[in-house]
Amino acid sequence: MTHSSAARRPIRGRACAGAVWLVAVLTTGLFIPPAVAEAVPIPQPAPKDRGGAPAAKLHETVEPEVTGTMQPPEPIIPDRRRNVPANFFATFTPEQKAAAARVSAYLSSLRTLAGNFVQVGPDGSRSTGEFYIQKPGKVRFEYDPPSPIAMISDGSSLVVRDTKLATQDIYPLSQTPLRYLLSDRIDLMKDTNVVGVTSDDLYISITIEEKQTLIGTSRLMLMVGVKDGKLKQWTVTDPQGYDTTVAIYNLNSTAKLDPALFKIDYTRYPTPNN
């Protein structure tokens, strides 16, 4: 399938949609005051080898960062009745703009990131897994069994793979929200359509609106910890109004990742019409 045709076709199924949005713009060093933290072990060295796919592994690490939690977090599900304005940039206060600048600096500072995630789908179903990010442009998300889904980007293309069916759908990375997370540098206020910035004692929340002519309007809400400045979770609202929330933990930003993690196998997992 060509990139243009893939861009026109919606992702199959909620599980696949959740996978593509999963990191739908991720992640996170900043000048927010550091919190008193507990030592975090590096993520497990390798997602399971499923059906001959390259085994995902940490090739080399230095001392893992000391932050976050060792236990899976409880995702915070947004109020489904919330109504985010289409745009009110002109009303943003200096404090809101400063908060967005902090998150932008954090995202821009990341080079690599590995960890675990907990995902809650629109129907309340939960799934877990591991993720690996290498900027610019590369990511791998592996869902734990029994889910057969994996998501891989090699820097230009992104595939959603079903190891049970031995198939994968391909999309241009530039047409997914992942481009925000995986870009080398980003200024959220300039490079995205920010429609909301809020904060409380625990989190800074930034909502980005994504409009696509053939698909509709989606929104991404990033939640960053006020104390430690780390990305905690994000929620993607699809054009039908369904939310998928992903919380991350056991973060390691000092891992040297195996390049094989981000290689797309077009032989074992052919794409439709490829």
Describe the structure.
By secondary structure, this protein is of the alpha+beta class. The protein has one domain (3-262): Clam (outer membrane lipoprotein receptor (LolB), chain A), CATH 2.50.20.10. The protein has five helices and 13 strands. It has helices spanning 3-8, 13-22, 94-109, 178-182, 188-191; strands spanning 58-61, 112-120, 126-134, 138-143, 149-154, 157-162, 167-172, 193-199, 203-212, 216-225, 231-237, 243-252, 255-257. The strands form two sheets. The chain has an eleven-stranded antiparallel sheet with strand order 7-6-5-4-3-2-12-11-10-9-8. The model is unreliable at 1-56 (pLDDT under 50).
The averaged pLDDT comes out at: 76
- For the report, how would you describe the main beta sheet? 11 strands, antiparallel
Helicity, as a percent range: 10-25%
Strand order of the main beta sheet, please?
7-6-5-4-3-2-12-11-10-9-8
Task: Count the DSSP helices.
Answer: 5
CATH superfamily: Lipoprotein localisation LolA/LolB/LppX
The tally of beta strands, per DSSP, is 13
The CATH architecture classification is Clam
Characterize the overall form: globular
Determine the strand fraction and express it as a percent band: 25-35%
Rg for CA atoms: 18 Å
List the secondary-structure elements in sequence, H or E: HHEHEEEEEEHHEEEEEE
The CATH topology comes to outer membrane lipoprotein receptor (LolB), chain A
